[in-house]
Structure formats: C-alpha cells, structure tokens
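Here is the promised in-class demo. Please do not try to memorize the tokens; focus on the logic of going from shape to residues.
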C-alpha cells in the first residue's frame, strides 16, 4: 500500500516529500493523482490501475509496484525523428542552456555532474523525477547516433552519468555497475508506470555509456569544459556520426506514442550497430 503522510504548516499542506498541496482540505475525501482518485485518510486509491490486467502478480490498486520513492522517470522513449541530432547540436544546447552548463569547468563542472543524478518527487506521477535533465526532453539533439554505441538518449546518458559519479565519490567499488543496476530497476518499473518506454532499445546502453563517461573519462582537473569533455567522449569513444547513418533512420517514428517500443533491449549491448544490427 502506498502511504502519503500529509502535514500542515500555517499556510499549506504537504506530502512527506514536502510537495505543497495548497488546495487540500479535510472536507474532501480524495485527491486526483495520476488520473486516479486517492484517499489520503486511508492511503489507498479508489480506482484500479487501467493496465492491471497485464500484471496479475500486483494488486490493481498499487502504483509503480508499490515503490514510488525509489523509482524515477528519465522519460526514456525511443528516438523520434524531430528530436535526433548531432553532438555539436547537443553541446550547443548545453552551452546555451539557462545556466550555460556546458561551459562549466573544474569544481563547477564536477558539482553539475553530481546534480545530474538528483531527483525530486513529482506529485502528479507519484514518483521522483530528475531535476536537471528535463530541460532536454523535448529538444532537438536529444538522440545522437554513434557507430559504437548505437542510438544514445542523452537524457538517460546524463542522468546515469550523475548517478555513477555520485557512487564514485561515495567510494563504491563498482560505481558503473551500481548505476546500471539502477537503470535495470527503472526499466522494470516502467513496465507498470510507463510501458511505452520500458526497455526501449537505447535506454540501458545509454545508461551504461553515461556511467562510463562519468567514472572513467570525466576529469574535474581538466582545463576542458564539461561540454568539451562530453564531446570528446561521444566523438572519440563512441564515434558519433550523423543520424542518417543509423540503419533504422528511415523507420524512426515521427512523434511519441503510447505504443510499446518498436524494439526492446534488456541488455546494455547497443543495437543498430555493425556488431549488433
């Protein structure tokens, strides 16, 4: 059962995540949450999950397999044509973002990389969402094709780069493995919360390459900016090229849908490459 503790200050009600609910009142018996009515008094949804029949091992009244605190959503749908681009295009996005994060160097770049793996609870979806990568969700250049890594979802890449870098700073023996394991856990949760993106073919490889960049290639002592170091990795390690070189370029969807991914991948081995077409 999902429990949302609600407490009050002098102006607002809050969830246990500190999310304010200004219009909450105990005169009402329910709140509309993620298209289902939720009763905070008894910590239960009134309606069943519309996809419950697909998952008979879980109660139809649960949300994200009863673990909304741990599960996050980098919005990992498969590439669509309007959002594909090149490394140069994405680096320009970083450099011209509101905080011009691509130009960060030294400690500033290191601190930004740590933040990339941070999340904040989203009341509508009832689970944490990334705090830094949402800016790129709908930007042209989000998806980059590489010869060695196949399609790279830069939203996934950056988020798990941040996770792995934090694990490295914490002294974890295998920070890449820890981050990738988080990625596997997320894909599993998407089977329930976002089946349209669960195990999309580029997700797990993007997670792994992002973690690899953060742990083995990013150097906070470098004179190069964050964007320059990221560009070096994408171009020199993954051998980025133009989207039209992808073997499935002509079959890419023109827009996001709620359909299942056209191809799934339950491994970190990239697809649509010479080695794994």
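The designed amino acids, position by position:
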């Amino acid at each position: 059962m999902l429990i949302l503790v609600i407490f009050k200050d002098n102006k607002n009600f809050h969830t246990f995540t500190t999310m304010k609910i200004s219009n909450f009142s105990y005169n009402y018996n329910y709140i509309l949450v993620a298209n289902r009515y939720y009763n905070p008094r008894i910590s239960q949804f009134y309606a069943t999950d519309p996809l419950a029949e697909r998952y008979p091992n879980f109660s139809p009244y649960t949300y994200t397999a009863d673990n909304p605190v741990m599960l996050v959503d980098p919005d990992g749908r498969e590439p669509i044509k309007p959002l594909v681009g090149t490394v140069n295009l994405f680096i320009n996005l970083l450099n011209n973002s509101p905080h011009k994060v691509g130009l960060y160097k030294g400690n500033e770049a290191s601190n930004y990389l740590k933040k990339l793996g941070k999340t904040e609870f989203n009341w509508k979806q009832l689970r944490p969402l990334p705090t830094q990568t949402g800016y790129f969700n709908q930007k042209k250049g989000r998806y980059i094709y590489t010869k060695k890594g196949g399609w790279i979802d830069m939203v996934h890449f950056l988020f798990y780069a941040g996770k792995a870098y934090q694990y490295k700073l914490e002294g974890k023996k295998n920070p890449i493995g820890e981050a990738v394991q988080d990625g596997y856990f997320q894909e599993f949760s998407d089977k329930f919360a976002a089946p349209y993106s669960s195990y999309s073919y580029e997700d797990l490889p993007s997670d792994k390459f992002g973690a690899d960049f953060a742990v083995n290639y990013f150097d906070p002592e470098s004179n190069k900016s964050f964007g320059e170091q990221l560009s070096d990795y994408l171009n020199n390690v993954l051998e980025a090229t133009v989207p039209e070189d992808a073997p499935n370029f002509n079959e890419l969807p023109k827009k996001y849908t709620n359909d299942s991914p056209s191809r799934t991948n339950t491994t970190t081995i990239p697809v649509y490459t010479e080695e794994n077409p």
